[in-house]
Amino acid sequence: MWRRVISGKVGKKLCNGILLSGLAVSPLLFSDYSSGSTLPLNSYKPPTYNDPGFVLKEIKKLGIEVSATTEELARHSDSWFSTDHPLPGEEPAAIVFPTSTEEVSKVLKLCHENQVPIVPFTGGTSLEGHFINTKKSITIDLSRMDQVIELHKDDLDIVVQPGVGWEDLRTYLDDYGLMFGPDPGPGACIGGMAATSCSGTNAARYGTMKENVINLTVVLADGTIVKTRRRPRKSAAGYNLTGLIIGSEGTLGIVTEITLKLHVKPKWESVVLISFPNLKHAAGAVTQFIQTGLILNAIELLDSQMMKFVNDSGETESKYEELDTLLIKVGGSSNEAVDLTINEVKNIAHGNNATTFKFAATEEEKFQLWNARKTALWSTIAYGKKHIDPNIQIWSTDVAVPISSFVESLEKTRLEIKESGLTSSIVGHAGDGNYHALILFKEEERALATELVARMVERALDMDGTVSGEHGIGIGKKEFLVNEVGQNAVDLMRRLKFAVDPNGILNPDKVFKIDPINDRSV
Amino acid sequence: MWRRVISGKVGKKLCNGILLSGLAVSPLLFSDYSSGSTLPLNSYKPPTYNDPGFVLKEIKKLGIEVSATTEELARHSDSWFSTDHPLPGEEPAAIVFPTSTEEVSKVLKLCHENQVPIVPFTGGTSLEGHFINTKKSITIDLSRMDQVIELHKDDLDIVVQPGVGWEDLRTYLDDYGLMFGPDPGPGACIGGMAATSCSGTNAARYGTMKENVINLTVVLADGTIVKTRRRPRKSAAGYNLTGLIIGSEGTLGIVTEITLKLHVKPKWESVVLISFPNLKHAAGAVTQFIQTGLILNAIELLDSQMMKFVNDSGETESKYEELDTLLIKVGGSSNEAVDLTINEVKNIAHGNNATTFKFAATEEEKFQLWNARKTALWSTIAYGKKHIDPNIQIWSTDVAVPISSFVESLEKTRLEIKESGLTSSIVGHAGDGNYHALILFKEEERALATELVARMVERALDMDGTVSGEHGIGIGKKEFLVNEVGQNAVDLMRRLKFAVDPNGILNPDKVFKIDPINDRSV
Fold first, then answer.
1. Is A148-264 a domain of CATH 3.30.2160.10?
2. From A251, which residue of chain B is nearest by alpha-carbon distance?
3. Is the distance from CB of A483 to CB of A461 less than 8 angstroms?
4. Is B187 left (phi over 0), alpha (psi -120 to 50) or beta?
5. What sequence ranges are listed for the domain FAD-binding PCMH-type (chains A, B) (predicted)?
6. B489 with A35: Cβ contact below 8 A
7. Which pLDDT band, with edges at 50, 70 and 90, does A34 fall under?
8. For residue B26, which residues of chain A lie inside 8 Å, CB to CB?
9. How far is B311 from chain A (nearest CA, A)?
10. Is the pLDDT score of B522 beyond 80?
11. Measured between alpha carbons, how far is residue B51 from residues A188, B57, B69, B369 in Å?
């Protein structure tokens, strides 16, 4: 069997037990593959990269737009909302704007052959540093590929390009009485949503990106174009390539076309707002909704602090009770069906000491009630800027735990943040056991916020949960991922990565380490 | 860049452009990896295998049961229902019965190190030749690992071993008011169900195995044990290893523990039977159910021929109209909710010229109505034996197409089979666009049946569908898979396979070719 080769001995490598020397090695050589099923970090020579200059010239020759204006470089390096920000010098060498799958293929082929790293970008709304250029790399911005290619309304699917924004898609589908399930933060595009396997308020009912993509057109590292599947709503034919690419954060391939599952928009839908004296009662109600088998389209929990911030923001017409609150969407194929469900929700709410129970009778009321959820993030930021510090920062992070641990996890996190002296609000997808802590902090309090997040994540793991329900790993949670799934599972991911991207050009330093020394974590 | 090495030149291989000679090569050497993202069939030296004798002795030394009785060899080589049967000599060298993950790990490590192929087995109910020992191999039977490890009823999940049968699981969960979604043919076990990504009558409502597995414990080819995830109902942390393993048909790893998502059993459920004058009217009703957004727990279509066979079998108490028939499950959290939905179903049925509309008012009636669906396969076989030939064979195959093409696809298939002179029945999961043709044939008509299946599959592809909605590829549909997803996608699957199973020991010759010459297809 093969021996593992310790990196750093270029020109003197063990090859199946025979010593070779003087080879002009490419970054990942034969001897870099162990003969086993995984690829531990120290078992291969990490990739090395070349300056992007030559590749950029070649890309320009192909007629593909390349930009390196200060503004474009800045916009593709960072966002205010991101948990992780670039270090000095961490900006792309240039931004490339392809307009077709074929152009993406040509760009990747050039990068692969010349060992130039490349970072994909669509909406730029991800939170864990996914599009930071940790190496001297090119950013490939797919936002010009923003067309709906084909709507198949009788098949309940749609073929779109990666630069389509989910909000634009929602508007487009409204006219057909159709909807797409995942609803992440504003500005997100389908390409990035597939890359991070995001979800949103509808996930307990309609699933995450994993359950809502039928097929993907993916350009692999060497420029090979693969379509993962045709358009059946289910298939048992061959490996689930679609499922492998979704959530791989641009490290396995670049998505250039996506067929999405659609749903019929509920003919009737109402919003219910219920306030509880405390989290335990809210949780009791949620458990009962689930155990009763009620089909609810969303069960969002906004904690008392969040309701206070929403009131303070002045963004909503009415004021809310500043209590732990559930916002629920009830849908159905008839008004009677919706009424029946609302009644069941009401009975359960009262059985769990609800202090307020409101439901929307009109579209306007529906909008008003749901508005608390929509303005949650902005209200928290506004509160921080107004009452704490105009330069306040926000750390928006998420974990998910088995549903019976949801409230305990959330409550302990809330208490811990409060005791630390920092201010935060919490919003959760109760049907999934997934919640977000929105922690406000001044720059000098970053270390404290970091520690609080680490404890929130570790507690989620102690409860058999995950370090991210919908934001992903990026550069921010790499160490946590090892804690979550163990070294073997991460070594397996790394093996898959280098099997399809042998030069390690695709979005380096995201999801897991690819280099034991030259790594960029938080 | 690396050059591709043509196989068959052992001892004289190109290694990064440098000629080496005299190496004692292991089956997959460095030079077998191209530097690209895929692994085309002719770009590497195919695996070679050793006689299992030595490994079997070592396994016995470990205290793991090994059997090679005629009866066990036969039982693990074939089943009457399978589409593909073993050729002479295609039987396991022996059957190994591990009782723990650690034992599976030890067995695989031995097989990996000694290049001995190994075929996983649980219920033995798969239909596409998944457990045929195409090479001189060991079969690893996981049916002794048949325990429920932990039920987390408040989290709606359960941890089980691969040998647990889904019907036993159903009985177990009944006591808790819980259920598991997928319901394939009788006798299937969770391990094999994960391997083939099966589903059943509930899939349009509850999803396939892909959507119903939270995590897997998998033993990789070299014996490495990986747990793909903890127990959150959703996660965006790292690659979707769970999703990659499900449907990989035992070619990437062997599953030894599975955490399944559970659902609350509908408090109230009824069965509706509707007969239509022809398929088009049945299809019209299905389209309207979907477009209305009705949530139905199953929409099964049994064609007129199937109803005739069910009547003929005498297995059911009442006789059915011998017309194209929909069998529908309507569930809800209250009796009123179920009644409301049944009324909507009724209105749509009548608007589509239904000739019969029955719904079950009692548990007994529910059982009786659904019985037509339960006895479908057996009735078809019984009919064939009684009226055609006591030695009749059955070819049970499935495809799935976009839902708007469901009826056209099914109708053309039915007509083509009829015109061929063979007898068949059809049962479909209408909500998914997935259907099964059960083709009866005498051994001398096998070539005709093969051709009919090929045409059914090709037509499904012409309609942008898949060559299998729930049975998988096995050895039977390898060529069709290439037609479905294209050579690049299959070459990517092959690259993933050899990245984690470099010696090619895991279930050889299934899903895609691993050897251009020494292959076993149908």
1. no
2. B239
3. yes
4. left
5. 88-265
6. no
7. low
8. 1-2, 16, 35
9. 31
10. no
11. 55, 12, 18, 53
